[in-house]
Write a structure and sequence with these properties.
486 residues; Amino acid/polyamine transporter I
Amino acid sequence: MATAPNAAVPPSSDPPLKRAVTKNMLLLFIVGDILGGGIYALAGQVGLEVGGAIWLPMLIALVLAGFTAASYAELVTKFPQAAGAALYTNRAFGIPFLTFMVAFAVMCSGIASAATLSIAFAKNYFGELVGAVPALVVVLIFFLVVMAINIRGIKESVGANAVLSVIEVGGLILVIIIGFVALGAGDGDIGRAFEVKAGGIDGGEALIPALLASTALAFYAVIGFEDSVNIAEEAENPGRDYPRALFLGLGIAGLLYVVLGILAPAVVPPATLLATDGAGELENTALIELAQLGPIGVDEKVFTIIGLFALANGALINMIMASRLTYGMSREGIVPGVFSRVLRGRQTPLNAILFTTFLALILATVGTLRSGGLGDLGGTTATLLLIVFAIVNVAVLKLRARPVSHDHFVTPSMLPAVGAVASASLALYTLVTKPVQLGFVAGLLGLGVIFWLANVVAKNNADGDGPGRFDTQAIQRIENPDDHRS
């Protein structure tokens, strides 16, 4: 393989991030991130679009995610640094504004996802377990705990993720077993899982629009694999471990999703699974209902506790991602240098964690107070990432002209090409047909533009090239991918 010269990383007074993430911890990180959101929080929402065939949009979303996962596998092994999609955009296009907006979009997707999960935690699961407790109070405590774990350290954070991932995967396996036993006992009808009813129980809508809308929402269930690239600087051996972990993690989560997408409508009566209240929100949580049925069904509180752990795990991983992305872009000189400050002793990006937690609380507050906020924030997360994925798929092809001095994974060129077109098309369709999600996306990206302009002003007022000044030469700098700085 051809080689290219690599410039050294500018010296920093801050300590490097600790390389403590093993290959098994990385796999659990990816599986936990994917599973923690969609299937626990939004499975029933998908059914509102396509009736019983919940598995179908999930399978389509899984295939779509696979195209982009292949691009990430190549890029993260080629450039194993913390900034993820924004770093790849930097290197591929060299447009500071585009780089900043990609970074901001990914960060917003992480905090929007964490906000989505916090709402499901407070309303769908915690409320089911404890009773009437103000959702905003639960959300606030939820984020304070997640923040404390994040600040404590990456090893502790990923260690907590490993434990919670085992619990949530165990919960899904338990539900699958309960579902199969219920079917075997005659408590259900497998045919319901293959009844595509565009528009929910009664149908009445056009199939293709309903399938596109449900796939866009189901895409929220399969995202998460991209978060792992933002802890590349904290992985023990990213070049060897990332491709295996990405594809295996996506495959494990996808298999569980498809099976559950078949079992839920087959075992739970559609009138229960898709029942809505006066505001159009689902009255029941799909997996809790499924877990109670059949000869070996469990008490709803048992599975509710498992769901709480799963949602907390997904939020923790998203907040790890968002804070590491903010830290990485600060190191690149694209956001103010204050976000690259590392807490000595713990070696965690303290200011980045505080900032992203604050933004997540704002979004969660808006989503909690608004009817339908759960689905809207979940859809917003997916749409933001679809836009980013389209750019990343183009970037991997453009960066083929920039070789590095070490071996790395290479994906077939057709996959990123198809992934770019599919991601862009689905994002555009969602923005055109979902005005609320368009408003969220436009508002968040508009905030990014404001931050960009503020950073430009700070650059023009700064003396020298110290931290906090936007460095237009940062996009030309190639950090040494083999420099693990342990």
